[in-house]
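Holo model, 6-O-phosphono-alpha-D-fructofuranose. Inputs:
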Amino acid sequence: MSNIRTLGEFIIEKQYDYPHASGELSSLLSSIRLAAKVVNCEINKAGLGNITGSVNKENVQGEIQQKLDVYANEKFKAAMAARDQVCGVASEEEDHEVIFDSELGRNAKYVILMDPLDGSSNIDVNVSVGTIFSIYQRLSPLGEAANIHDFLQPGHKQVAAGYVIYGSSTMLVYTTGNGVHGFTYDPSIGTFCLSHENMRTPQEGNIYSINEGNYIKFPQGIKKYIKYCQENNPEEGRPYTSRYIGSLVSDFHRNLLKGGLYLYPSTAAYPLGKLRLLYECNPMAFIIEQAGGKASDGTKRILDIVPSELHQRVPFFIGSTQMVIKVESFLKEYPDPFS
Ligand code: P6P
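Output:
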């Protein structure tokens, strides 16, 4: 037991890396940890209860909400509201930002944005899903209710970001700008234990993750890049391997560990891309950059995009630095005649 470093211990230990840290961020990360345990418990037995399937309602994205989407959203929202560090929450499952307009909420320091259960359409077929979160310091003054501007900050302003992957094992991976650290859940002791300290992603990779079913409608540069991946060039490790789970957290996590590139370009169905900037792209971009990788919308750094609305979508290319640079070069060389 002596060599186990729990997530709680690690958060406190790292807190001392920030002389001005007042412990509120540490406490906020701890409440995320608690909510992750609760959601993990429900997911792990999803097939047994009446918790799979849809609620026959669409979210603001126009996507059918799964029962576990709603469940996860409620559990994470409740965990945030219960502590005095959060003044508001934005979620993929909420049409608008949720402001905690109480005495506690008005004097809380952080806003959190989240995709409570990404890839949830995979749950009924037992494929890994995940929770993604992004944390900012509020811009509005303490003592007042938070407002939309607290949420529309560029990604480089994040103070923390992370994800939970409910997979063959459950892991929580996060950064506060001081490296990326992964914790594996040990159900026998009900604790997240440090398993991947200072995670780094390879500069090069040979895995590409894209839904090739959309090929016909991809921009020209993406079509050319896919053919580049499939060319026979053993010296450069091509053809690459195609791996696409259909769950961002799962594809991202594998590529983070092994090297690779996740692509969700603009398509006919999603002219601005499908992935949401604020609670999918920004947190993953913060993590990948902290691990030595890169994240782009095809022309510019994801973390430099100034958001204009809560649920805005962007084209998304994230992973090994050299692979992101390569796909950007194809998009530049073959500009889409329709763009
Ligand atoms: P498609 C899940 O809905 C999600 O947001 C990501 O987790 C996933 O990578 C992507 O969409 C899958 O989209 O259009 O390929 O089914």
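Residues 97 and 148 are 7 Å apart (CA to CA). The helical segments are 7-15, 24-44, 67-82, 103-106, 220-230, 248-258, 277-290, 321-333.
Archived with the compound record.
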